[in-house]
């Protein structure tokens, strides 16, 4: 089995702020630890892949994704509370999605490639097939 040691993070008001791993704690002490699960984070935010899909960082601004794909992802004021594509998709799904989960919006399919620390780090984005 795959066992992960997790800790619950409590904020100054006694509320649950999230979950962390031992790797998260060590990275705060010694800096970023690169392992086989990490995708280089300093390469920008949207990349074309060979199979005509795109790798998109979860922290990419919604407007940048809209411009890159020529779509409108947010229509109402309700959706304006999110700045990043990761936050918008997680809100749509009602939870922080895990690797392999996918969600469609505005004619695009967002498949989670990697999530870490309670947020999506990378999506694989492709136009939905008609």
Explained architecture:
The protein is an alpha+beta fold and 130 residues long. It folds into two domains: 1-33, no CATH class; 46-127, 2-Layer Sandwich (Uridine Diphospho-n-acetylenolpyruvylglucosamine Reductase, domain 3). The protein has helices at 22-30, 62-69, 85-93; strands at 6-10, 16-21, 46-48, 54-57, 102-105, 108-116, 119-127. The strands form two sheets. It has a five-stranded antiparallel beta sheet, with helices on one face. Strands 1-2 form a two-stranded antiparallel ribbon. A hairpin with a 5-residue loop joins strand 1 and strand 2 (16-21). The model is unreliable at 39-43 (pLDDT under 50).
CATH top level of the largest domain is Alpha Beta
Secondary-structure element order, N to C: EEHEEHHEEE
Number of strands: 7
Number of domains: 2
The Rg value, from CA coordinates, equals 16 Å
Unreliable stretches (pLDDT < 50, length at least 5) are: 39-43
Give me a quick take on this structure.
By secondary structure, the protein is an alpha+beta fold. It has helices at 22-30, 62-69, 85-93; strands at residues 6-10, 16-21, 46-48, 54-57, 102-105, 108-116, 119-127.
Q: Mind sketching the topology for me?
A:
Elements (H helix, E strand, L loop, with lengths): L5 E5 L5 E6 H9 L15 E3 L5 E4 L4 H8 L15 H9 L8 E4 L2 E9 L2 E9 L3
Antiparallel strand pairs: 1-2, 3-4, 4-7, 5-6, 6-7
């Amino acid at each position: 089995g795959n066992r992960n040691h997790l800790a619950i993070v409590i904020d100054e008001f006694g509320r649950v702020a999230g979950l962390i791993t031992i790797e998260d704690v060590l990275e705060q002490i010694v800096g970023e630890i690169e392992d086989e699960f990490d995708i280089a984070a300093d390469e920008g935010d949207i990349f074309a892949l060979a199979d005509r899909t795109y790798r998109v960082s979860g922290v990419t601004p919604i407007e940048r994704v809209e411009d890159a794909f020529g779509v409108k992802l947010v229509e109402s004021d309700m959706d304006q509370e999110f700045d990043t594509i990761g936050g918008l998709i997680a809100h749509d799904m009602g939870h922080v999605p895990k690797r392999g989960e996918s969600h469609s919006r505005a004619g695009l399919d967002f498949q989670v490639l990697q999530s870490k620390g309670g947020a999506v780090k990378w999506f694989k984005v492709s136009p939905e097939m008609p």
